Amino acid sequence: MIVIDTSVILATSLNEPEATLFHSLVSQEEILVGWPTLVEARMVLAGRKFSNAGDIVKQLVDLPNVTAVAFGERHYLAAEKAFERFGKGQHPASLNMGDCFSYAVSAVAKAPLLFKGRDFSQTDLKLHPASSTE
């Protein structure tokens, strides 16, 4: 089981260099993704003029191996901790709000996080080895 960050959804949707690898993992593994992450992905895609942004997110959620995770109190506390320890202005990882949501889902589930970027590699999370830190 792995948790995916918004960056993975964007990389596959925007056909970035990691898209093929990420798509393969998302289609083969049991996936957890927080509802706040899905909202963020939809907003970013809509901002990049994807008129089908909602459909892209719905297709992901409808996959049988994907579970959208409701954000509860345990997630809130984990996200709060993530911001205090690794948030913008607190730490070089400089996690933003969306990053803190992904951090929380990964931390609560005790599942590795799949992501693109350098931010999460500077935290204490268990990271999926296919994550791209370029």
Automatic annotation (TrEMBL):
InterPro entries: PIN-like_dom_sf (IPR029060), PIN_dom (IPR002716)
One Pfam family recorded for the sequence: PIN
Gene3D superfamilies with a match to the protein in the record: 5'-nuclease (3.40.50.1010)
Superkingdom field: Bacteria
TM ranges: none
Domain PIN: 2-124
SUPFAM superfamilies: PIN domain-like
Full protein name: PIN domain-containing protein
